[in-house]
UniProtKB/TrEMBL annotation:
This is Transglutaminase-like domain-containing protein. Residues 168-235 form the Transglutaminase-like domain. SUPFAM superfamilies: Cysteine proteinases (SSF54001). It holds the Pfam family Transglut_core.
Length: 281
């Protein structure tokens, strides 16, 4: 089924004191691909900035901007309307021999690297390797994600964007980005390429058309099974018609919605985020 969805994402910072200037990057524009089509989109920024738009190495749309005037508040609003058609897919399938081919691993090296951010630790990597010894790649993915869901509870506020996957595994708690980091690291431990996907998810399975719903940013992953296959470990499902994709990268650090620096003054800063999603038809 095709869904047309409008997303309005407000974010920014308020500063205790005026800052002299700031340099920032925004990754909040949905991607157009074979599963979703961006009908329209725009980024509004206050105060009025100098802007450069480009597509980064991973294929994510970026709005880079510079503000060269005093300001005590930075505001960014992304507004987009997206048509999503994401039918169930059957993976082509891949074997361990294909995953271990030198040419393939060289091509996928960035999505196979077990960095400190996504390394889940010896216990989970050991579990993944034991599964891989007796099962195929797809079965290993399913078993690893089931193990993570059994161990890691969804608990907001106990982690932050720089929390390491091994600390999430030890604590047994985190949010969507944490479950994705743990999953990505465990799959990479056994040579299955996996990548981080940022975006949005409608908070209701049966939304009323035209009724705005309070939402938030969401994260899921894609793993290689002869093609990139989507998997949402938080909801134990494949991405569906209410998932809207924004960016792809090795982990969260490649796709933050807003990142930047400021100079002069500032003092303490406070981030604010509001997301609203509306199904239009």
């Amino acid at each position: 089924m095709t869904r047309q969805i409008r997303i309005v994402h407000h974010t920014g910072y308020s500063y205790a004191e005026n800052v002299l200037g700031s340099h920032n990057e925004v990754r909040m524009t949905p991607r157009s691909n074979r599963e979703q089509w961006v009908i329209n989109s725009r980024i509004d920024i206050q105060p009025n900035p100098w802007v450069l738009n480009y597509t980064d190495y991973w294929g994510t749309r970026v709005t880079a901007f510079e503000i060269r005037e005093r300001h005590s508040r930075l505001g960014v609003t992304s507004t987009a309307t997206v048509e999503v058609t994401r039918p169930p897919e059957v993976a082509p399938g891949v074997t361990w021999d294909e995953l271990r081919d030198d040419t393939f691993t060289d091509t996928m090296t960035e999505m196979l690297a077990v960095s400190e951010h996504v390394d889940p630790g010896d216990e989970l990597c050991g579990f993944a390797k034991a599964m891989a010894a007796d099962a195929g790649p797809a079965e290993t993915v399913a078993a690893v994600v089931d193990r993570i869901r059994d161990r890691v509870r969804y608990v907001p506020g106990v982690t932050h964007v720089q929390t390491r996957a091994r600390d999430v595994w030890t604590a047994g708690a985190g949010v969507c980005q944490d479950m994705v980091h743990v999953s990505i690291g465990a799959l990479r431990c056994v040579g299955i390429p996996a990548r981080y996907v940022s975006g949005y998810l409608m908070p209701s399975a049966n939304p009323m058309p035209g009724e705005p719903r309070t939402a938030e940013s969401h994260a899921w992953l894609q793993y290689w099974d002869g093609a990139w296959m989507g998997l949402d470990p938080t909801n134990d499902s494949a991405p569906g018609e209410f998932h809207v994709e924004v960016g792809i990268g090795r982990d969260y650090s490649d796709v933050p919605p807003l990142r930047g620096i400021y100079s002069g003054g500032g003092g303490a800063s406070e981030l604010y985020v509001e997301v609203e999603m509306t199904v239009l038809d």
